[in-house]
Predict the structure.
Amino acid sequence: MARATITPQQLRDHVLTLGEKHPPISLDSVDRTVHDPVGVRETFGPVIGYLSRVELEVDRNVLELLTLLPEVDETDRLFFADVWQPQEIQHGLILDRLQQDLGMDPAEPNTTVISPKVRLLGALSHLGPVQEVARLLYYLTGAATERSAVLAYNKLSAGLEQMGEHAVARTVVAPIKQQEPGHFAYYRLAATQMVQAGVLKPWQIRLTQVLRRRSFALVGVNRPGQDADYGQVVSTLGLEEDLAGFARDISRVERELLWAGQRGMEVPGYVLAALKDAVGAYRDRIATGGAATA
């Protein structure tokens, strides 16, 4: 079945609706009551710590976006400046307060250091055709990131409910996870609209494929050791049990838009390889008695 055509106005309306229906979560609106702090810390501490750091790195994400897209369009700017950034920063602040309640150290997010790869692509993005490629890469990265977050928060919420930590599950995790699907939907709609409108020529699609394959990184993996931290999150939440299914879910937008011509491809190999590497790094850490870095 052919996908309905997405218009720029529909995309903008989606952003406006997100802002109206999902204002940033107030710290005062959540109940951080925890009945078994030691149990929650031992079971889900690394997950909460990783998520809080990633959410708090939103300011660096904005810097990367402005580097990649020096001529960002107004709808993108409305989304990341007025909707996404204010929501994400509150997610991070709430989770960071929760992890400190559990006796953990505060998050140490990277909010300023932009990777050399992003800087290089940003330098080239002043060329119009390259900026269009960068914009599609931004949407694909956002879609994979937000889908990962949805799955992680679903698993975390279920685990906390099972432990009887209903206040945190229902007033901290639940409101956060309710906002993530709207972010994912924006990236999916924006990427699809670009492809439907024929913004990119065939050579630009091929370049996007090459760059995506070479630059793909798991969310929050920016420094040495953070791949093992990600692997620990995957293992703790039980996502390791169906790693291929997890990879398939978080890569479905790029699979549909970049790799649709390659019949039989259920999972881009670079996505599954990155997940396997992260889980392997975590297993190596356990074997050597190493500590988390998140």
In short: The chain has one domain: 8-287. The first helix runs from residue 8 to 21. Residues 153 and 177 are 6 Å apart (CA to CA).
